[in-house]
Design a protein that fits this description.
single chain, D-amino Acid Aminotransferase, Chain A, domain 1, alpha+beta, about 30% strand, about 325 residues, 8 helices
């Protein structure tokens, strides 16, 4: 019997009527489909990472979690564990602890999706992701971190336009038209005057990384399962430089160029990723550079917002949720 545990983060803006986050809802639908298709007994539970408890007694480490139905489980009773998002570094540290303890089990323990990649990434930040890319030799967008030094006054006076991002990907909660909204801490600067723009000027510059603005206002997300590209989309900005926020269009790109396909699959193999989404941007010659990557990507827009390309009007999105629950290393 296979027993799956899917661990998601709680939403910063509480969902009404006990609803699950979009990603978790789709994962649950595919678990139900798997149960119907499989000749094996399939059980699954969904829980929030915030419900993990850890007990230390001598050399014993006991980890439990309470699912959305209110049932508490021993982590080690599951055969497969899939991580969704996390809200802060404490929750990521708990994920790392689960990986380590599952790996020590004499009975083999639960298989944890992307365990090998997570071991390579002790901190889930844009800074650490860039460090991994640099150390493994894959093309990425030049990135600088200046701490509390004179980043605003002198560091980029001759290097605009630039993009400034929160190093850990933290977002702001803001009030707009009577509603609480999430706004990404990613900013486009065309001159030193733009440091004064709303929200950015309120933050500590030591929390930000800086990248040169790429010449094309679009990015490409590629989904890779067990080292094979399975689908993707190209996202274009229709109202400015940044592809996050504002008016955008999504176009299916399930068959990316040979260069992007090879680079995506090479990254997945080198990092032993079970499932990964890789975001690319391009220079004026069309060369791909890794913008960032995710082990638990959102895919609602891919399934619901993407249009087929003009030269392939019959193209449709692949079932990303199904691939996620099936993407475990050989033997899993």
């Amino acid at each position: 019997m296979k027993s799956y545990l899917y661990i998601e983060k709680r939403q910063r803006i509480p969902l009404k009527n006990g609803k699950l986050p979009r990603r978790a809802t789709r994962i649950a639908e595919e678990f139900e489909s798997l149960r119907q298709r499989s000749a094996e007994d399939i059980n699954y539970s969904i829980a929030y990472i915030s419900t993990v408890t850890v007990g230390f007694a001598g050399k014993d480490v006991n980890i439990s979690i309470t699912d959305i139905e209110g049932v508490t489980h021993n982590i080690f009773d599951f055969t497969h564990i899939i991580f969704g998002g996390h809200f802060n570094m404490k929750e990521y540290e708990l994920k790392q602890m689960i990986i380590k303890e599952c790996g020590k089990r004499k009975d083999g323990g639960p298989l944890v999706q992307n365990a090998n990649l997570m071991r390579r990434l002790p901190y889930y930040t844009k800074l650490d992701m860039t460090y991994l890319l640099a150390r493994t030799g894959f093309p990425y967008i030049d990135t600088d971190y200046f701490g509390e030094n004179t980043i605003r006054e002198t560091s980029f006076k001759n290097r605009f336009p630039i993009v400034v991002k929160h190093y850990a990907g933290a977002n702001d909660l803001v009030q707009e038209q009577g509603k609480t909204m999430i706004r990404k801490n990613i900013f486009f600067l065309s001159s030193s005057d733009d440091w004064a723009q709303d929200r950015l000027c309120e933050h500590n510059p030591a929390d930000y990384i800086v990248q040169p603005a790429m010449p094309i206002a679009e990015d490409l997300r590629v989904f890779v399962s067990r080292h094979k590209v399975i689908g993707g989309w190209r996202r274009r900005s229709l109202s400015g430089f940044l592809t996050v926020g504002g008016e955008r269009e999504y176009v299916l790109e399930n068959s990316p160029s040979p260069a992007v396909r090879k680079l995506s699959e090479d990254i997945s193999k080198a990092w032993e990723a079970d499932f990964i989404a890789i975001d690319f941007m391009f220079d004026e010659q069309g060369n791909p550079y890794v913008l960032e990557f995710s082990m638990h990507p959102g895919f609602w827009a891919y399934e619901n917002k993407t249009a087929p390309p003009a030269d392939d009007p019959e193209q449709t999105p692949v079932n990303v949720a199904r691939y996620i629950i099936e993407s475990f290393s050989p033997g899993g």
